[in-house]
Write a structure and sequence with these properties.
This protein has 466 residues and is an alpha/beta fold. The protein folds into four domains: 5-120, Response regulator (Rossmann fold); 142-315, Rossmann fold; 317-393, Helicase, Ruva Protein, domain 3; 405-466, Orthogonal Bundle (Arc Repressor Mutant, subunit A). It contains 20 helices and 16 strands. It has a five-stranded parallel β-sheet with strand order 2-1-3-4-5, sandwiched between helices. The protein has a five-stranded parallel β-sheet with strand order 7-10-13-6-14. The termini are far apart.
C-alpha cells in the first residue's frame, strides 16, 4: 500500500463507486464525498491529491479549487468534467488546477494522471524511495536569455510561473523569431519537471514517415533499415517536457496519431504491438494563426482544442514599442563581450533607425543587425551607417531610417511587405538569399509570399503595385 491519501468528490454514485473501487485496488487511501461542502472541511496538509467533479449541487469544483489554491497550494487538484463544461475546466487549469479529465475517460487515463501528479508533487512517505533522477540543464537559463521591458511582454512572462505548475498543454503562437522556443523552455524551467528532460522536435523539418519514426520510435525489422529498436522522442521525454515546434506543418495523418497520444497517454512504436505509457508535458508552437488555419481545413479541429488549453500569443517586435531599443542595448553589450570590445553607445540617428525598421525577422533579425553593428561600428558610438538593414548594400550608408521603403501613410504591414519584396527583387527572386538577408527562415518567407499572392520569381510587377 502506497499510503497516498486522495480526496474523491463526485455526486454521481455509479461513477464515484467505480473510481473508488479502482483507487482502492491501486493501494490509495481514500476519503470519498458526494459534495464539496463536506470535502472542504476535510482538506488538510495530510491530503496528497484531490480528484473532484466540476458541476455539483451547491459549491462546485471551481470553489474547491479556489479554496485549495489559497490554503494548500502544494496539493494538486484534478478536475473531472463533461463536454459541456470543458471551457470552464480549461479556465480552471489556468487558475491552478493540475489536470482535467473529460468524461467518459478510461481507468488507464486516470491512472496516468495520478502518476503524473505524484511525480510532479512528490510526498516523501516512510519506506518510499525518492526519485532524484536529474538531467543536464543549460548553464544559462532561458529566463535569463529572454529580454523584455514592454508591459505586455512582462505580463506574459509573469503568467508563466503559474502556467508551469499544471501539466496542461500549451500552444505558443507568434511570428518566426519572436522567442517561442525560449518561452517553452521557460515553462519547463518553472515547472515541477525542471530537473527532468526537455526534448524539442521540429515538425516541419522532416517528411511524415521520418517524423513518425522520430516521435514514436520503431521496433527492429519494422521497415527496411530498422536494424535495432529505436526509442522515439515521446518515449525519450517521458516524465519530462516535449516541444512540438511548428506543429501546424504536421500532416493531417500525423495529427490523428498525435491526438490519440494526447487522449490515451500512450504510444505504439512503429511495428510494435505493446502500448508504452507516457507521462508528458506537451508544448506546441506555430507561426500561423492556428484557429484560422483550422477553419480552412488544414488542421484538425479536435486536435486544435486539445492543444489550445493554455494559449500564449507573442507579439512581433514591431508591436513592442521601446522594447526594441532595450533589447538592442542588451544585445550590443552581449556581443561587445563576445568579441572583446568596449560596449559602444547608440547615437540618436541609430536609435531612430532601429525604431523605424519593421523587423520582419523579429528578435533573430535584430540580433544579426546588432552583432554586425558591433563589428563594423566605432568603439565608442554606433551611428546610423553601422546598422545595416536588408535594403542596404554594405558599401553605402543609408540616407535615413528605412528610407528606401518607409513613406508617409504606409501601415506596418505594408512596410513589411515592401521590405520583403524589395529584398527579393534585389536578389532576382532568389528566396534562399532573401531569407538569409532578412534573418528569417525560408518557410516563413514562403508563407509571407503566399499571403502576398507571389508565385513566380519576377518581382517588378508586384513592386509597382505596392
Amino acid at each position: 500500500m502506497n499510503s497516498k491519501k486522495i480526496l474523491l468528490i463526485e455526486d454521481d454514485p455509479t461513477l464515484r463507486n467505480a473510481i473508488e473501487a479502482f483507487l482502492i485496488k491501486q493501494g490509495y487511501e481514500l476519503r470519498v464525498y458526494d459534495n464539496v461542502s463536506k470535502a472542504m472541511k476535510e482538506v488538510g496538509p495530510d491530503c496528497h491529491l484531490i480528484l473532484s467533479d466540476v458541476m455539483m449541487p451547491g459549491l462546485t469544483g471551481y470553489d474547491l479549487l479556489g479554496y485549495v489554491r489559497k490554503h494548500f497550494p502544494t496539493i494538486p487538484v484534478i478536475l473531472m468534467t463533461g463536454y459541456g463544461t470543458i471551457e470552464k475546466a480549461v479556465e480552471a487549469m489556468k487558475n491552478g488546477a493540475y489536470d482535467f479529465l473529460i468524461k467518459p475517460f478510461s481507468l488507464n487515463v486516470l491512472e496516468m494522471a495520478l502518476k503524473s501528479a505524484f511525480l510532479d508533487f512528490p510526498h516523501d512517505l516512510p519506506g518510499e524511495t525518492k526519485n532524484t533522477e536529474k538531467y543536464p540543464t543549460a548553464q544559462i537559463k532561458a529566463s535569463d536569455r529572454f529580454l523584455a521591458s514592454n508591459i505586455k511582454m512582462k505580463e506574459i512572462l509573469s503568467n508563466l510561473r503559474r502556467i508551469a505548475q499544471s501539466k496542461a498543454t500549451v500552444l505558443i503562437q507568434g511570428e518566426s523569431g519572436t522567442g517561442k522556443e525560449l518561452i517553452a523552455q521557460m515553462i519547463h524551467e518553472f515547472s515541477p519537471r525542471a530537473n527532468r528532460i526537455f526534448v524539442a522536435i521540429n515538425c516541419a523539418a522532416m517528411p511524415d514517415t521520418l517524423l513518425e519514426s522520430e516521435l514514436f520510435g520503431h521496433e527492429k525489422g519494422s521497415f527496411t533499415g530498422a536494424v535495432a529498436r529505436q526509442i522515439g522522442k515521446f518515449e525519450l521525454s517521458n516524465n519530462g517536457t516535449i516541444l512540438l515546434d511548428e506543429i501546424s506543418e504536421m500532416s493531417l495523418s500525423m495529427q490523428t496519431k498525435l491526438l490519440r497520444v494526447l487522449q490515451e497517454c500512450e504510444i505504439y512504436r512503429v511495428g510494435g504491438t505493446q502500448p508504452v505509457p507516457l507521462n508528458l508535458r506537451v508544448i506546441c508552437t506555430t507561426n500561423r494563426d492556428l484557429h484560422q488555419y483550422t477553419k480552412q481545413g488544414n488542421f484538425r479541429e479536435d486536435l486544435y482544442y486539445r492543444i489550445n488549453v493554455i494559449p500564449i500569443t507573442l507579439p512581433p517586435l514591431r508591436e513592442r514599442g521601446d522594447d526594441v531599443l532595450f533589447m538592442a542595448r542588451e544585445m550590443i553589450n552581449e556581443f561587445s563581450i563576445l568579441h572583446a570590445r568596449k560596449s559602444p553607445e547608440l547615437d540618436e540617428s541609430a536609435k531612430q533607425k532601429i525604431l523605424s525598421h519593421p523587423w520582419v525577422g523579429n528578435v533573430r533579425e535584430l540580433r544579426n543587425a546588432m552583432e554586425r553593428a558591433v563589428l563594423v561600428g566605432s568603439f565608442d558610438v554606433i551611428e546610423n551607417g553601422a546598422i545595416l538593414l536588408p535594403n542596404e548594400k554594405t558599401n553605402r550608408i543609408s540616407q535615413g531610417p528605412a528610407a528606401d521603403y518607409v513613406e508617409p501613410g504606409l501601415s506596418l504591414a505594408e512596410i513589411e511587405k515592401r521590405v520583403i519584396l524589395t529584398t527579393l527583387d534585389r536578389f532576382h527572386g532568389n528566396r534562399t538569399k532573401t531569407a538569409n538577408e532578412l534573418g528569417i527562415s525560408l518557410r516563413t518567407l514562403r508563407n509571407k509570399l503566399k499571403t502576398y499572392g507571389v508565385a513566380g520569381d519576377s518581382m517588378s510587377g508586384k513592386l509597382d503595385a505596392i
